[in-house]
Specification:
Rossmann fold; six-stranded mixed β-sheet; three-stranded antiparallel β-sheet; globular; binds adenosine-5'-triphosphate
């Protein structure tokens, strides 16, 4: 089973420290971990540090995987300038780091990723011609199709309508449950985090100020302190925890 643990991890741009001294419990395959925090808290920077795109102090410990590329990443920006169809772009993402010869299994994985995200009908479209939400789903498919042990997604639902938000998060939940992937997902919608994530990490000014089971992290006290909103958390008729925001303070 894949595991990921951060030990005193920091990251900086030039001389500006952004992420500072982050230590987490050992997360493992099967978990969905929400990465939370206000704008500029350092969520994307932490993803880049985990991916090795940024250097810094501390250790990113990944074990329990034989994959050559155990981590796939869906960035926040999903610009699509290449002249490729959706199908080609997802296949290209699949083939990164694999042998050049496309096998039937690769095509099957492309079909599966497109179908899981309900975008099979877009396969022949040029990615440059898509709407923002369609592009975001293609970007998610490009990450999913790699079948990583660890999947990191930076605000994957920000351009999606409500149905597609819930569908994408449901797909992520299933990937964790059925394929034992470890999913780490940055979210601004704390209601989504309460509903889909097992654990949450709350960043503020580059520091980890809370980490643990989602309902222990997303509390009225922390919401007032970090997000400056008055909010209640109550179960709905189906027993799912809901976030009700009263006002900004
Ligand atoms: N390439 C860069 N060079 C210098 N500073 C950067 C760079 N990218 C981000 N920053 C700064 O690092 C800080 C953290 O940014 P980051 O993108 O990690 O935050 P975030 O939590 O992902 O924010 P958001 O929720 O707004 O996407 C911000 O102050 C930002 O201005």
């Amino acid at each position: 089973m894949v595991t990921l643990q951060l030990n005193h991890v920091s990251a900086r741009y030039g001389r500006h420290p952004i992420v500072q001294d982050i230590t987490t419990p050992c997360f493992q395959g099967g978990q969905v971990v929400a990465l939370l925090g206000p704008n500029a808290a350092g969520k994307s920077t932490l993803f880049r540090r985990i991916l090795g795109l940024l250097k810094g102090e501390g250790e990113v410990a990944i074990s329990g995987t034989n994959a050559e590329r155990p981590v796939a990443y869906m960035p926040q920006e999903t610009g699509a300038k290449a002249v490729l169809t959706v199908y080609e772009s997802v296949l290209l993402a699949r083939m990164q780091g694999r042998s050049l010869k496309v096998q039937a299994a690769d095509l099957a994985q492309v079909d599966r990723a497109l179908s899981e995200l309900n975008i099979s009908a877009l396969g022949e479209r040029d990615i440059g011609d898509l709407s923002g939400g369609q592009r975001q789903l293609v970007s998610a498919a490009q990450a999913l199709v790699q079948e990583p042990d660890i999947l990191m997604l930076d605000e994957p639902t920000s351009a999606l309508d409500l149905n597609r938000q819930i569908n994408l998060l449901g797909v992520l939940r299933r990937l964790a449950d059925e394929r034992n992937m470890l999913i780490m997902v940055a979210l601004h919608d704390l209601g989504h985090a309460l509903r889909f994530a097992d654990a949450a990490m709350m960043l503020e000014n580059g520091r980890l100020i809370a980490c643990g089971p989602t309902a222990d992290v997303i509390t009225p006290t922390l919401l007032r302190q970090v997000y400056r909103v008055e909010a209640r958390i109550e179960p709905c008729s189906k027993g799912r925890l809901q976030l009700i925001v009263e006002e900004a303070v």
